[in-house]
């Protein structure tokens, strides 16, 4: 019997869900673990924990489920997540320098103003939640999916989003100048005000309504 049954959207052909053990238990000694300068947490469930303004030298989470954990305004240096499910967690205005992600799902999390420049992500899902004004510039997103997320005013400048799925997202006024968008699927998302060049959008997958918007962006006159 699994410890948690994810309610995330159906997996794409390539993305792998977090590989979570079936016997995860609540984390003991929370205060001792999170007061250490280098935090390592494995094989557990963490619920209803406030870690606002948290600033460890490094933090590693592996094979974990986090529910309603708050990291607002935290400085999360050398942040590593592998096989982690996060549900209704809060990273508003946090900094996650050196973020590395493998098989991680954010479900209905608050990522408003999160600064995660040069993030390295593989098999990432962000579903629902608010990530407005977040900064992911120069990031790499391999086999990643974004569903029904609010990314208004977010910054993906010069990020590698090749093959990513962005479905039902609010991408208004998103900065994507210099991003690699080949095979990125924007269908069903709002793209008004999205900033990118014709070269950036080459090979992206869009629906007819989006094509009209991008045509205006490129200076085309449709009559």
Structure explained in plain terms:
This protein has 223 residues and is mainly β. It has helices spanning 30-34, 208-217; strands spanning 25-26, 38-50, 58-70, 79-87, 100-107, 120-127, 140-142, 145-147, 165-167. Strands 1, 2, 3, 4, 5, 6, 7, 8 and 9 form a nine-stranded parallel β-sheet that branches. Strand 1, helix 1 and strand 2 form a beta-alpha-beta unit. It is elongated, with a radius of gyration of 18 Å.
Q: Summarize the biggest pleated sheet.
A: 9 strands, parallel
Rg value: 18 Å
Number of strands: 9
Provide mean pLDDT, rounded.
91
Q: What is the subunit arrangement here? A: single chain
Low-confidence stretches: 1-5
**N-to-C CA distance:** 59 Å
What's the shape? elongated
Estimated structural class: mainly beta
Approximately what portion of the residues adopt beta-strand conformation? 25-35%
In helices, the fraction of residues equals under 10%
What are the salient characteristics of this protein?
nine-stranded parallel sheet; mainly beta; 223 residues
Q: What does the secondary structure layout of this molecule look like, with pairings?
A:
Blueprint: E1 25-26, H1 30-34, E2 38-50, E3 58-70, E4 79-87, E5 100-107, E6 120-127, E7 140-142, E8 145-147, E9 165-167, H2 208-217
Parallel strand pairs: 1-2, 2-3, 3-4, 4-5, 5-6, 6-7, 6-8, 8-9
Short description:
By secondary structure, this protein is mainly beta.
């Amino acid at each position: 019997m699994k410890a948690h049954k994810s309610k995330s959207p159906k997996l794409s052909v390539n993305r792998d869900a977090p590989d979570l053990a079936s016997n995860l238990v609540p984390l003991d000694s929370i205060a001792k673990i999170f007061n250490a300068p280098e935090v390592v947490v494995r094989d557990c469930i963490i619920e209803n924990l406030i870690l606002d303004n948290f600033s460890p030298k490094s933090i590693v989470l592996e094979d974990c489920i986090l529910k309603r954990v708050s990291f607002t305004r935290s400085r999360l240096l050398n942040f590593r997540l592998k096989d982690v499910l996060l549900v209704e967690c809060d990273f508003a205005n946090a900094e996650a320098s050196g973020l590395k992600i493998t098989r991680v799902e954010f479900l209905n999390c608050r990522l408003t103003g999160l600064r995660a420049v040069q993030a390295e992500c593989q098999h990432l899902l962000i579903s629902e939640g608010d990530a407005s004004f977040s900064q992911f510039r120069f990031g790499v997103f391999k086999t990643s999916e974004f569903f029904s997320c609010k990314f208004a005013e977010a910054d993906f400048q010069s990020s590698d989003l090749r093959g990513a799925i962005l479905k039902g997202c609010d991408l208004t006024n998103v900065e994507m100048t210099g991003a690699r968008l080949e095979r990125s699927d924007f269908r069903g998302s709002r793209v008004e005000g999205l900033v990118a060049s014709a070269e950036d959008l080459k090979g992206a997958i869009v629906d007819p309504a989006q094509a009209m918007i991008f045509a205006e962006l490129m200076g085309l006159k449709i009559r």
